[in-house]
Structure formats: structure tokens, C-alpha cells
Amino acid sequence: MTKLSYALFILTLIFAPLAFGTVEQWSLLIVQLLIAASIFTFCLQRSRSAEKLFHVPGLIPLLLLVGWMTIQIVPLPMSVVKIVSPETYQAYKPVYDMLEGERWMPLSVHVKGTILETLRITSYIFFYILTVQILSMGDRLKRTVMVCSWLAIGVGLIAILQKFSSPGKIYWLRAVTVSADPVGPWIYRSQYCGYMELVAPLVLALTLYYRPVVSSGESLRRRIAAFFSKDGGNLYILLGFGLLILASSTFISLSRGGIIAFSLSFLFFFLLLAWKEARYSGFFYIGIISCLILSVSWFGWEPIVQRFDNIINSSGDVNIDRFPVWKDSWKLFQDFWLTGSGFGTFIAMFPKYRTFPGNEIYDHAHNDHLELLTDGGIIAFILVSWFLIAIIRSGMRMLRRRRDRYSILLSIGALTGIVATLIHSISDFNMHNGAVGLYFFFICGLLVAAGHTRFHYQLNATLLPRSGWLSQNILMFSGGVLFCLVLFVQGGAILSRLQYSNIKNIYISRQLSEQRLHEVSSVLQQAVRFDPFEGFYPYLQGDVARYLNTPEKALASYILAGLKDPMDGAFLQRIGLMLPQERQQEAEYLLQKGAERTLKKDLLMLTRIEWLLATNQRDKAIPVLNEAIGDNSELVGVVMPLLQSFSFTREEIAAVLPKKVESWMRCGRFFEQVGNLEDAVYFRQHSLQFLDYESKIQPEWFSQLFHYYRKVKDDEKALEVLRRGIKKLPNYPRFHEWLGDYYAGDGIVYRAQEEYQQVLLIEPLNEAIRRKVEKLNSPQQK
Question: Which of 145, 339, 500, 534 is at 20 to 30 A from 583, Cα to Cα?
């Protein structure tokens, strides 16, 4: 049974990084079940022992953290939530107003996300406890570190080969999205570096441990012979070469945060080593750094340098895309400073606070420290800080006491891995990766084991005292609870997804037959049963009920979806659309809140606008239209058909459009496409009057209007636009070329030559313009 428990423990460490970094639900399910099985078999083999388990440093704050995460899930009286977390109360309020009587609500704004995070963190804590217990034996400790080291070297070798032979696929087989940049088994390079930052210091520690000691007083020939004949010489060379593979793969991943964290952590390693051991000369450190530089130079420094050069843009400003995310995330923390919005809720909350444009989905804050504050508040931040201080303090205390060289080097390596993760967590979200999070807690357990395990002993294999309360019975019971919860939550979510896959390609609409709608409803009921915390399935149930002409059931399903995920704006808006005429004020409130709570604000804002117009609230729709189009000129093309269907006059449209050239241009283009040339001319003519409001002039504004006038044979106005464009953008060569073509066509040769010469001043290598000049200078032209 002992061998089985250890085998499951090792299998977990091997499986997690190889299973695509454990970023998917199926791989996370397997990892969590493996941990629970390891706990069960470990406790089973100790069932006859009355001894308590070994003391686990920092376990109290970790248990309190899990307790706090559980409190975020458990419903509390609304009056309590309103006092403790007013913003959580406001998040649920639009949905809870639809219900009668006193209701209870959780502190988490997305309960499913918090449950999944609670299971993940709890699994890591169990693995941390298991690491401390299993690696209290010296032989197991050495075997485990060696397995992890060779695994990391293999992963690093795969990463390098894959990077240059098949950069767009994982394991040369699995394709990834265009936005991803896979390195090794990981989809994202930063998370690959997060794994390497944890394991590479262990490989460095082993390399130094197996370094043969050769007498400096002997001849070079004897020293070389002694080097290869002594125990550990071959391992030293192989591990040293493997260390270069790990370092090189980290650098060629081009993860700026990973490279910085990796470099600073190794500096920390050598500083600790110099403080603890004075046996290494300056030449030793210079040699290691030189080998690293040479290994990276083999693959080329240019991409790495270019990657860091991109931090500064052409204007000399710092160009880091994470700054706006951090700024908006800080606003989120300020609203949820005490309790947090709930672990795993960042993806649900961030769209409400996002101020910068774009359609990218930010499921994490790209800063684990900041996301800990937004999700768990000050309470969670204090508990995690308590744990980290306890772990690092325990490691440093034993590092001062121990004299065993293996223990010293391994402790330094484990401390280095922890420090590297804390540094990299400033710019990325590696702790939310399944494999990296697992290895972080494993390294924490390894630090405790390395500092306390005795490799030469007579009575006790470890210096760790026995715990006063932690027994195998407690651990087995809690491990069994974890196993059941993982099967229920994670397994249920996978089963519900499999159920939904049977109907996901069916477009739910009124065109479906009643029988088909009932079949879809039956499948969705199964999905809800397997995954009761997901709001998407009740939302689809509401659509089905609406098309089956059962509005009461539809409204109930939409409310249920909103209770499960109140930050999904589509859920709120659908509730509002289902309310009867006499509840028009409530419906307007839900439509407004829904438009604020989604990444796709434009689309939901259009839903709100259309509802206002359909309910004869034109005066309220116009300011909403101004806000929508003012933030996004591209929305003009989507809004115009809606305005036309509600018979907006030219004056009303002009009042709605913002004072932006692009908006008026798009409006004119729309009218041209529908055949209303009179309005097309009006909006295009008046578009350039807003040039003074623009911070940056775009040549397309003039070129679009110029080509339009040429198309309608109005050369006088085309010429006027062209001259205005040259006045605003004198260095744009196309305007000079088109004006030159106009003069050449009218036979005004000298003016055409002047304009062509202007083009050549801007583009000296423009051969097409040179040919035009030569043609004008030809005898036939003259």
C-alpha cells in the first residue's frame, strides 16, 4: 500500500505538466482524483498506527483560507451581505428584486467559479500535506527530486524541438488558437516558464551536489581523470547539460516575465549559496553564466532583444498591455476590498470595470497578487501572506541549522522556486495554471521535507515533530470528501457538457417544431441536473420555454440563470424582456444593468435601445444612442438599420451621431448602400467639419470622400476635398499623386509636375511616379 500511495504521488507529478499543463477540465479532474486516491492509500497503509502525522508548517492559514472560500459560497442573509459587501449586494439586487420575501445570497458573484477554485486550492493543500509526509524518508525524497528533474529536462527538450520544428502545435499534433504561443505541453509561454522557474533550481541544486571535488594541487591530466572516475561525474555532466536546456528553453520562449523571474531567481540562488557555503570561487559563477549565455546564443539573442525592445514604443512611452488591466482591476479591488468578489470570479466581474477598448476576454488580471485581492479581499491576502511567511521562515531556519550538503542545496533550490513564482506572479497568472499551481505547493512541501529530513540517522528519519491534532483518520475523511466533491462538481460539469454537445449545433428558434423543442428541453434538463451551478443551461431552457409559448416558465428559467451568474448581462436583459407591460420600469432597469455587465456592451446596449424605441421611449433612447456610438464608431453601421426602421429623420440622426468624422462617414456610406444618395451626400459633406475635434487625422476620411465625388462625376468637390487633405496631411503622397493626375488630365503639365515632385520628395524610390514625370517631359506631351 505504501508503494501504491507513492506511485500515485509520482504519477500526479508526471501527469500534470504533460497533460497540456492541466488547463482543461478533464485533466484537472484526473489530477484532483489522483491526489484524493494518494491521500486515501497513504492513510490506509497507516491505519494501524496510532501516531499523529508530522507537523505541516503553515497549515493553519491554509485551512482558514479554504474556510474563507467556503464562506464565500454559503448563502448569507441579504442584510448581512449588504453590510459586509455592498457591491456584492448590488450585483445580485437586479435579480433578487424579481423574487418575493427575504432571500439569502452568497458573497461570491459567481458561485460555480468559486466552487471550482475551492476544489483546486484544496487539492493543492492536500498534495502539500502529502509531500511533507511522504518525503520525510530520505530515499523517497532523493528519488522524487530526481524524477522531477529528468521530467523537466525532457519537457525542456521537447519545447526546444517543438519550437523550431512545429511552433504552432503541441506535441507536433494538437493545434492551438492563433492568439496562443505554445511552448512544450503548455498553450501559453508564461505558464511554461512558471513551471521551469519551479523545477530548474532543483536541477541546479542536484548538479552542484553531484559535482566531483578534485584537488587543485594535482596536474591537469590527473584532475581530468579524477573528475570522470569519481562518483557523480557523469550525473554532473548530464544534469549540467539538462540545466542549460531548461534555461535555453525559458529564454527562447520569449516570455519577458519568465526571463526576468528566471534570471532574478538564479541570482537569489547564488546569493543564498554564497551566504551558506564559501567553497565556490568567483570563477565558478562566471563559468555557469558563460555557459548559459553560450547556450542561448546558439539559438540567437535577436528575438529576445526584440521582445524587450517592444516595451518602449516609437514615442518613447512604456508600452505594456497589462497596465490598463491592472488599473481597472485595482478599481475592482477598491469596491470589494474586504471580502473580494469571490475566488474564480474575475472573468465575470472585470467587464463591468473595463475602461479600455477591445474584445479580448481577460479571465485573469495578469497579476496573481492583485487577483488575490480582487477575488479574496484583504482577508485572503492576509491568510496567503501568513502561509508564505511561515513556509519561508521554516525553510530559512532549517537552512541555518543544517550541515548536510544535499539538504542545504535542495532547500536553496526550493526557496528559489518559491521566490521565482512570487516575482513572476507580478506580471502573469501562473498560479491559476493547474500544473504550475500543483508544483508550487509541491515545492513548498519539498522545502519543508528537505530542511527536516535526515539522510543519516539511527532513530528518527525527520526532524519534524508530530502534529498535535492532524491524524490519518482526519486526513482520510477529508480526502474522501474531496473525492466525492470532485466527482460531483468536476465530473458533473463534464457530463453536462457531453449532454449539451448533442444539441449545441441546433439553433433554438421559433422555426423548430414543438417536438424538437421538447427534445432540446429534455437534454437541457439533464445538463442542469449534472451541473446545477451553471447558468447557461437554464438560460437556454428559458429560450425553449419562450418558443413553446410558456412565458411563466421562461421567466423562471431566466431568473434562475441570473441567480447563478448575475454578472452576465444577457441573462439580466432576457429577464427584462420577459416582464409584462405594467412592469416596464423594472424591465428598463434590467436592460440598463445588463448592458453594463458584459464584454459585449455594444450588442446588449443595442438590445436596450431597440426596447426603448419599441416601447415609445424615444427621448430615453437618444442619449443611450449617443453613448453607444460615441464609444464605438463601428457601431454606426449596426445602428443605422435600426434607426431607419423607426423612421428617424435626417435631423434626428444628425443629433444622435457624435462629433466624429468616422461616424458621419459611416452613416453616409450606409445611405449610399441603401440607395439614398441625397442623405449620403449630406452626411459625407458634413463629416469634415469635425476635423478640429479629432486628435489624429486619418487620410482615409479624405480619400473616401474624394473617390465618392469622382464616382458621382463631381470633380469640383473632389478637387476641393483633395486640397483640404493636402493642407491637413501635406506629407501623405497619395493626395499629391491624385492631384497631379487631375492636372495631367486637364493638360496643366507644370502643376502636375509640381505635385509629382512632391511625391518623390516623400517617396524617392517610387518608380511609378518617375515614369509619370518622364511621360510629362516627353516630346509628345510637350
Answer: 534
* pLDDT reported for residue 659: 83
Q: How would residue 305 be classed by pLDDT, with cut points 50, 70 and 90?
A: low
Crossing angle of helices 2-18 and 434-452, in 10° steps, is 140
Q: What separation in angstroms does the CA of 95 have from each of 113, 524, 546?
A: 19, 22, 19
**Other Cβ atoms closer than 10 A to 539:** 21
Backbone phi and psi for residue 136, each to the nearest 5 degrees, phi listed first: -75, -10
Q: What is the residue type of 635?
A: L
> Cell 532513530, residue?
459
State which amino acid sits at residue 556: A
658 or 435: which leads in pLDDT:
435
Evaluate whether 740 touches 726 at the Cβ level (below 8 Å). no
Chain mean pLDDT for the chain: 85
Residue 64 burial (CB count, 10 A): 16
**Grid cell listed for 68:** 474563507
Q: Which long-range contacts (CB under 8 A, 24 or more apart) does 550-559 make?
A: 551/578, 554/578, 555/579, 559/95, 559/98, 559/99
C-alpha cell recorded at residue 526: 439533464
Confidence band of 621 (pLDDT split at 50, 70, 90): confident
Q: Output the CA–CA distances (angstroms, integers) from residue 308 to 189, 319, 478, in the order listed.
A: 15, 10, 47
C-alpha cell at 621: 433612447
Q: What span, in angstroms and rounded, lies between the C-alpha atoms of 90 and 96? A: 10
CA distance 621 to 88: 29
- Under the banding of pLDDT at 50, 70 and 90, the label for residue 731 is confident
Q: Which segments of 166-255 does DSSP mark as H helices, in order?
A: 189-209, 220-229, 233-252
Spatial contact of 412 and 276, defined as CB atoms under 8 Å apart: yes
Q: Give the total residue count for the chain.
A: 782
Q: Is a pLDDT exceeding 90 seen at residue 722?
A: no
